[in-house]
Amino acid sequence: MDKKPVERAPRIPLDVEVNCNGNKFVYSKNISASGIALISDTSMEPGQFVQLKFFLPGIGREIKAHCKIVRTAAVSENFHEIGASFWDIEDEDKELLEKFFN
Predict the structure, then answer these.
(1) Taking 80 as the threshold, does the pLDDT of residue 67 lie above it?
(2) What is the DSSP string of 22-37?
(3) How many domains in the chain?
């Protein structure tokens, strides 16, 4: 039986400030319907859960999402790229994400 690889959702470049766990700010690199890539000066562990809050361009309301860290990689001596999968997100915020992608 042939298994197809899971397709990644299309990603859109996104450079916005993201509030992480209510007190730390990181920056986004890109976003998809299933997650967000972040740039941070501190590493995060895969499997860790974080709460993110951010604004999308053209959307006047803050998006709130609980995310699971799925990958982390050093991109320089001082910065890490972190992949976060949307784990728990309100329906209204999902709709705003869909609006942003359309």
Answers:
(1) yes
(2) TTEEEEEEEE-SSEEE
(3) 1
